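pls ignore typos typing on phone
magnesium ion + seq
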Amino acid sequence: MKNIIIFGAPGSGKGTYSDEIVEKYGMGHISTGDVLRAEIKNGTELGKTAKGYIDNGQLIPDELMIDILAKTYDSLPAGKGVIFDGFPRTIAQAEALKQMLAERKHDMGVMIELVVDEDTLMKRLLNRAIEQGRADDNEETIKKRFAVYHNQTEPLAAWFQKEGIRHTFTWEGSKEQMLANIFAFLDTLK
Ligand code: AP5
Ligand code: MG
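k done
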């Protein structure tokens, strides 16, 4: 399978659909949010730095993220394809990803954009707060994450459009339908 960049607002389902795609196509998965949360849990220096940003709903500085991404990518088995979940989130990260992959003679593959209305996103994340207790899933921080998404990340969709790899999937109320649409598209790539 080609590489896949899964793109969307907080709560749009990047992690959820990544798990389903990994199960069906057996590829690698890098969630930069999960990588950072593991660093926080292990009490590393990186984790201590990341915690301040995450708890405040802000992005970790690009240089730090790009370095982490490259190290994580190189630790995965080559040739099976990787899903990038939560990366890139800025134009600088996107340019760095493209270059990092080109240096390895790989390409970005396809970008899957998940579009979901904000009321649904908020409900999902407040529900996840009850189920999983993620530190940044409280109403105040979620609103900051939405603002960061709109200001810093959403403009990247146009960057992917220019690259010719943007594929948009819009939430219409059914997870099964969303998955069927994504799988139907991915099946055309094999
Ligand atoms: P990250 O962990 O990536 O968080 P996020 O982008 O806010 O996205 P979420 O993980 O909250 O949502 P998701 O789209 O994965 O949705 P999910 O599948 O869980 O990043 C966290 C922080 O780390 C950032 O704020 C930043 O500080 C830092 N960071 C990470 N990457 C960075 C980067 N590249 N640069 C700088 N900083 C970075 O779904 C949400 C919930 O909805 C789940 O509970 C799910 O079960 C539920 N759900 C209910 N119905 C559905 C449905 N129909 N489809 C999908 N999910 C559903
Ligand atoms: Mg996630």
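Residues 14-15, 31, 33 surround magnesium ion (ligand 2) (CB under 6 Å). Residues 136 and 142 are 7 Å apart (CA to CA). more later
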